[in-house]
Amino acid sequence: MKQTIKLIFIGTVLLLFGCKDSLEQDGRGLGMVPIIKMANGELLQNRVFYYSLFDTVRIEAFIDIENGSSLPNSLSYFWTVSGDTLGRQKDFSYEVSKLPTGISDCRLVIKDVTRDVVYTSDFKIYALAGVKEGSFILSSDEKKCTQIEVFGYKSVDDDKVIRYRNFAGLALGREPINLHLSYLNTENKAKNFITMRVVSKFGDYPIIDVDYKSLNIQSLYAKYTAVITGEPLVPTYSWSSSDKFLNGNLYNIILIDGQAHMVTNGVVSGNIYEQDKYNFGKSGLIVSENNSTPIVGFEKGLGFRVFEEIYFNTVNGFPNQVFLRFDSLYFKDREFVALAGENDYSDVEVITRDQDSFSVVKSNDAILSPYKAEPVNIIDPFGIMRRSVHFLYRQGSWFFAIDRSLYRLSSKNGVFETFLTLPNDDSGDIVTWNFSHDLDDKIGIATFNPNAKTDRKGSYYLYNLKGNVLEKKYLYQLNRATKIEFAISNESNGE
């Protein structure tokens, strides 16, 4: 990725008293710091610029003398990073991979040799160990080993794929379950990501927390010691909203042998519902991405229970009360498919299936409990719903994949229609997909062709939802995908 910063220098001219070549004296002792701005009008002074591993920093400097004087024609440029002069040309260009990971103190000094004055300003560069913005895909190879494959989708001329199979020498385990990218919940449109949580079913450390910027390990959850009640940590399901924090620590819910456990701050709790012995099977416990929506649990043959939302109503940090119940009669012989919720507990939509049909059940008044299910049958004259995968709910509609297409479903009438179809390139059927957090109007789609003759049998497609335009296609550059997440930084480099 090539990023260009244009800087405009507007401001006070500093007299240079015996300035040495080392630039140790730059006139700052006079208290006269020039106003240095970037092309977008923001100040350079004290700025921190974030760059991904394969970025190239390019800075173009311009001087605009406020008092109308002519532009000096004898200028010397000194670009220093961590005290080392890395450039003496007008334009600064440097590969981020040559910088140390983390923050480097930088200074730009422009010396007017004829007038014996300098212009100066300090800033910082944060060199990330990975990618600042892009698609993070949890996948597994032919041995079911967990890895993360990263595609930097902001890049125009750089199609590098970064793959992580371990962090600090620790393997990510086998049979990937989920990837959680957590961020600080700010008012900014984009996200300040801080933690990656990788969850696998098997491994010495089935759950690993990694710092997003440095890729240093933050927390490890060991298989035989992480769960406080002693059982081995072998999760079959993991949920977390990107901004869910408890006492400053990211938390999520996992299932072990059908029992719900909370994961936070390096510890896994015992069974959250120990008193009632709920068994949610392999993946029957759902917490909506909507903060206001409660946990919904499904037990085959017994139906659904809706519990208080753990973020707002807790006893010792764990959910404690059944808030709403669905009548179990309708769900007796049905299997769970997906859930979504809105409007502070009131609206919960549940999709279930039997061998021949799919249906949507919606609650609309939390006072009336238990609910008598009033299903809306999904109209499927050709029987293709049996091949459907990965249901998501967005802006009042359900979306899911069948073969190589995405479909949109209305829960009001049970009718679904084609939303997007991949190009015909023999890359296999869709195995997972995701929206980009409603931030950047992106959608990522992963396919897998088990019969491909290539080393990797998966492909990745990145679409812009504005017109459903295909922006990137990575054909056979991916392993079998389990989860797609997006990182969208709120750190602007002033381009």
Automatic annotation (TrEMBL):
It comes from the Bacteria. This is PKD family protein.
